[in-house]
């Protein structure tokens, strides 16, 4: 056959590195992955790791600085062990972040795909509703939802989800519109597949990089926003440890006992940074074009 | 005579042009494809040629219903498929596949070659995972690739290899008709020949019918059985390849054929290229659409649109004066001057020595 032209390749394809090993090639990604695992592990196993009960207060130990006897990170204004509070606070904060990014993100992504795919019918209606949502500040949404459901962690999650939906929808719609114009979408349509398969197998995977960047950035923002809502008294209620709430409790003592506010802030900072770096590296590792 | 595989009548696609921000009103219509009729028999290649923007690709997508036609009917094996939707349409898609122009854009970068080729089979529920894997290997060797290529991603291939993958994908569901939308125009000339030969080879083996969109007449001359020439959304001439190339009846076809570059210095200055531009499909000229550029245009051409009229033996042309035009201009095949012929003979002897 005249067309059987040999390709100048090695006869045996080299084994392909998996996503994980590609990810670990980047030292920044390896460190952030370790940090994320550490943070999640600490949150999951908080009850086992914590030296004391997070609600155990001992006013004689109030505001003890880090390094005091039996209190490696010191104690807060009520004399509660800061390590224990941090471990349990991490739990609440991470859970809040995950839940709201997951809920808001998936609803937003779905709406974005629908708007782009059925541009003719759904784009206008969906995106105008998103614009409406976008015009409310997250804090205002939080206030409204706290007024309906009462203040608490659930209200914060709902508020942050609602605030995440329009952002995700906009970003997904934007990148989906670009992908929709490419030939392989038309090729997929020409094979006669259903719209659902077309969206989830061809459209969505090619929008992943935008989604990944947004999710990781948003995760950091959401944790900060959740902390802000807790600070306003709409989120985690006082005895419950939450990183943002802990930081805001500590601000009254910033001059006498800076560790009470600074340590939770450092933890928040670490979470946000680790997730951002990891998200970036994960996006690259998942893109087959960047594999070699 | 056997029934044609694909029969298209009066196919049209009109795009409304709207103006105004809030109260958009229609200010015009782009007649991208305006009443095109043709048929393709089983195992036959019909080439659709014409310059950029004449509606070739739109016609191809209309046939596949990737774009909804504004008017006309598409019959496949005698059944009207112009308006079918849903599951019936998806089942229909198995019979008609497409090979795209740009091999860099037509493969999903997130799917391996095996997934890309197996997907149409999975969609139509052909075989199980294991048999599909075997079929993928068969298809890869059929298009001149190796089985270990299956686990690679599109970006690891060259343009010609990707086009082969695209062809394997189209063939995976054993279609009857393959629409080739300029399948080789994005490739290097040496690769073009390989891919064109592959397509011809596959046609012989599987009895495929091709609707072959092209603007390169050399490729068309090589692959086509019949040729349809389009100008401004309409077919101006259609006929058997040999007949059409030897005896073009429409002035536009003549201009196209005369524009083929020939390595013949004697020809310089003898070919008059067409003047002017293609008129806007939003506002096609009255009468014959070609009269603004036609060297033979008469008053009648400016007012009366010519229909496709049968000439001899399946050859049709849309020109009022198709029969009375001067014989197709310059015959370059034997047009070498005596001096040039002598010199060429000299070269040939020198090379042989």
Automatic annotation (TrEMBL), chain A:
Belongs to the binding-protein-dependent transport system permease family. InterPro entries: BP-dependent_transpt_permease (IPR050366), MetI-like (IPR000515), MetI-like_sf (IPR035906), OppC_N (IPR025966). Its main location: membrane. The keyword Membrane applies. It is a multi-pass membrane protein. PANTHER family: OLIGOPEPTIDE TRANSPORT SYSTEM PERMEASE PROTEIN APPC, PEPTIDE ABC TRANSPORTER PERMEASE PROTEIN. Keywords: Cell membrane, Membrane, Transmembrane, Transmembrane helix, Transport. Pfam families: BPD_transp_1 (PF00528), OppC_N (PF12911). This is ABC transporter permease. The chain crosses the membrane at residues 30-50, 94-117, 207-233, 253-279. Coiled coil: none annotated. It comes from the Bacteria. It is found in: Cell membrane. The keyword Transmembrane helix applies. Residues 90-279 form the ABC transmembrane type-1 domain.
TrEMBL record, chain B:
GO terms for molecular function: ATP binding. Keywords: ATP-binding, Nucleotide-binding, Transport. Residues 17-257 form the ABC transporter domain. InterPro entries: AAA+_ATPase (IPR003593), ABC_transp_ATP-bind (IPR050319), ABC_transporter-like_ATP-bd (IPR003439), ABC_transporter-like_CS (IPR017871), Oligopep_ABC_C (IPR013563), P-loop_NTPase (IPR027417). Pfam families: ABC_tran, oligo_HPY. It is a peripheral membrane protein. Its main location: membrane. It is found in: Cell inner membrane. Belongs to the ABC transporter superfamily. NCBIfam families: oligo_HPY (TIGR01727), PRK11308.1 (NF008453). This is Dipeptide ABC transporter ATP-binding protein. It comes from Neoroseomonas terrae.
